[in-house]
Amino acid sequence: MVEYYFTEENVTTSDFAEKSKMVLESFLSRIGDIAIKFKSPLTVYLHNLSRFDGLLLLDYMRKSWGKRGNVKMMDRNHHIYEIKVRASGRRVLFRFKDSMLMLKGSLDSLSKNLCPELGYKGSIDSLKVNQDTLSNMKEDLRKYLKQDVLLLGGVMQKLQGLIWDEYGVDIECKLTLPSFAMLLFRMKFLDADKWHIYKASGDEDTFIRSGYYGGHVDIFIPFGKNLYYYDLNSLYPFVMRDSPMPVGTPVWHSNLSEMDLDSIFGFLEAVVNCPRNIKRPFLPFRKRKDSTLIFPTGKFRGVYFSEELKYARTLGYTVVPIEGYLFEKSEGSPLEDYVRSLSENRIIAKQKGNTAMSYIYKLLMNSLYGRFGISPECTTSEICDDAQRKYLVDNCDKLLYSEAFDENLFIVGYRINAYSTKEKWRPLPNSAVQISAAVTAYARILLYPHISRDDCYYTDTDSVVLGQPLPYDEGSSSEIGKLKLEDRIEKEWFESQYVDPSRKLNVNVDNNFALDWRSFAVQKKTTTYKLGINPEAKRDLIYDDKGLWVDTSPIHVELDDDTALGDGKSRQIVQALMDNINDLMDQINKLNRKLLDIKEEREMTKQEEGREITNKGSGMTKVEEEREIPMQEF
Predict the structure, then answer these.
(1) What is the DSSP string of 107-124?
(2) SS3 of 521, please?
(3) Which 3 state secondary structure label does DSSP give 538?
(4) Distance CA 221, CA 549 (A)
(5) CA–CA separation, 175 and 153 (whole Å)
(6) What pLDDT digit, counting tens, does each position of 189-224 carry?
(7) Which ranges constitute the DSSP H helices of 200-260?
(8) Which residues are CB-neighbours of 629 under 8 A, at least 6 positions away?
(9) How far is 161 from 144, CA to CA, in rounded Å?
(10) Could you give the C-alpha distances from 359 to 59, 158, 168, 258, 528, in angstroms and in order?
(11) β-pair partners for 465
């Protein structure tokens, strides 16, 4: 339901602080009066509850509704997901949720996609709103706020109705769209008897997560004109649909050195060597100093998905597997039915002109992959009494702060799964980092042929900027897994930054609604940001004779044995394998040279035989021919 209630009409005081308090009290009392009529908890959506409205409400509710247990907050990494309010009988009376966690984007954009018939959102210059201007702006503010409520209600009701009609599931049962996508996948599409998607333990998750890399982002050539910007349609859903996934219970192997890489499927630690002649290296490597993700040449050690190591080997990499978790390789993909159904339904919705449903299908299709890889380590806060505070201080993984929140109440901030032992490990429901890590690895494989082109200027996860257009049959504006021409770049890149890549600019940004999580205060704050680029952190820069940045080359990594190869016996084993592989590569190169020599000799023999046959036809012997040539030249 959508209801308007102007709380200020019931406020008589002229004191601004007291008036604000009475407005909030009237607002919460009104919601309580409505909620008490329902048997089930009433859900109230606020757009951006997690980063703004939630703190304002909690700051007030801690003072007026702060009896132990009446107000319960759920937050993760400084985002409020839900605030529950309980009645005296412990029943949940109502709960605030963040609509932005279900539908990311501005309310203006969402309403245009889902309920354009409700009109435009409009705007108010918040900088002009203050105590002195409130009276004069009263009618404009009322009109703006009423439209805000109408659009938010329209958006959430439209989403709820469409999802219920299509799948018979209520969106109120989940807090975020990725978690709802996971519910939908498991309820409607996952064949649990056929596919066992394993939930990793602490050690397993930590190892596999170290091989979970994002997309490839790099500047290769800093300057260009008339360039072509391509985006790969639904990159992650495409590889989710068409690629085999790691399923079943993983098995740890402490020595993979004697196993054929082609027989391995899973996540393994390996030492790799990328030749210097590869201009656009394929495998990622995380710098230990600052965790920057680079794509270097040289020798380094890391955890990778087996399929990207196999692909790297075809490019000329040397790969030495060490240890890792091996999974079953699915026949087909457990995610195929989910992606295929949403993709096909989206096409049908587009053909019928159903923009709203097409938009929802797209959101659901792109929301599932990340939920598998959600990090188990997170920051959370708890409002509690002194006994619970003492328990958390003594038992939480990593204490961040513990401060008085109000009379007899405290707020404690801490990290979950920070240094967890098996006893303390708290896995998140339905997480499976191996799925997300495999998806991103397959995506990098799919895009690499375009990244490796000499005319690739730039890449970012699912897009490339090229100097020449792709052949017609390689592109499509709608087919998933195909590149779509997004734009033509007519002007030069980085026009001011290009002349001096090291140029930095300090900019002060005023935030009128900065959040302080310890005090739950919203206040004005000025923050200084340093703007600029740091391309040398990712690749080495190449300059011309005039000192102008013209190109880049990959960073070359040569780690010492202690860092690259581990300790003790493992270092000796890996070094011996590397030496053996290098010897084999030398032998292969020698054999290739011999084969090339033999091929050239055979070609020369064929040519000589052909000339002899021709000369026989003219009656001239080979000796006579050889004598005749210099005489003619002389």
Answers:
(1) HHHHHHHH-GGG------
(2) strand
(3) coil
(4) 9
(5) 17
(6) 999 899 999 988 888 999 999 999 989 999 999 888
(7) 202-209, 235-242
(8) none
(9) 26
(10) 36, 12, 18, 50, 37
(11) 229, 458
Q: Residue 68: helix, strand or coil by DSSP?
A: coil
C-alpha 55/C-alpha 223 separation (Å) is 46
Sheet holding 463-466, edge to edge: 217-219, 456-460, 463-466, 227-232, 483-489
427 DSSP assignment: P
Nearest of 151, 146, 140, 141 to residue 118 by alpha carbon: 151
Give the three-state DSSP class for 153: helix
On whether the CB atoms of residues 301 and 559 are closer than 8 A, the answer is: yes
Structure tokens that stand for 294 in this block: 């680079």
Query: CA angle, corner 129, sides to 125 and 134, nearest 5?
Result: 130
Helix (H, G, I), strand (E, B) or coil at 454: coil
Structure tokens at 16: 């601004």
CA 358 and chain centroid, separation: 22
Is residue 401 within 8 Å of 381, Cβ to Cβ?
no
Q: What are the pLDDT digits (tens) for 249-278? A: 999 999 998 899 999 999 999 999 999 999
Instruction: Give the type of residue at 200.
Output: A
In the structure encoding, which two tokens stand for residue 606, read together? Answer: 């064929």
> Which distant-in-sequence residues (6+ apart) come within 8 Å of 147 by Cβ?
119, 120, 121, 122
Tell the residue number behind the tokens 């333990």, with chain if given: 201
Distance of CA 458 to the CA centre of its chain: 18
CA 432 to CA 177: how far, in whole Å?
17
pTM: 0.81
Please report the pLDDT score of residue 418 as a whole number: 61
Q: DSSP of 568-619, one letter per residue?
A: HHHHHHHHHHHHHHHHHHHHHHHHHHHHHHHHHHHHHHHHHHHHHHHHHHHT
| More confident position, 458 or 74 | 458
- CA dihedral angle for residue 597, residue 598, residue 602, residue 605, rounded to 10 degrees: 70
Nearest to 93 by CA among 31, 46, 45: 31
Sign for the CA dihedral angle at 429, 432, 433, 437 comes to: negative
Q: Per the structure block, which two tokens stand in for 442?
A: 């397959």
SS3 210: coil
Nearest to 245 by CA among 440, 448, 463: 440
- Look-up: residue for tokens 């209520």? 170
CA 214/CA 200 separation, integer angstroms: 20
Alpha helices for 271-335 (secondary structure H): 306-315
* pLDDT tens figures, 499-557: 777 778 888 888 777 777 666 677 778 888 887 788 888 999 999 998 888 999 999 99
> How far is it, in rounded angstroms, from Cα 472 to Cα 325?
42
Chain Cα centroid distance, residue 95 = 29
Tens-digit pLDDT profile for residues 337-358: 999 999 999 999 888 888 888 8
- Domain boundaries in the chain? 378-416, 495-532, 567-633
Of residues 259, 230, 228, the one with CA closest to residue 326: 259
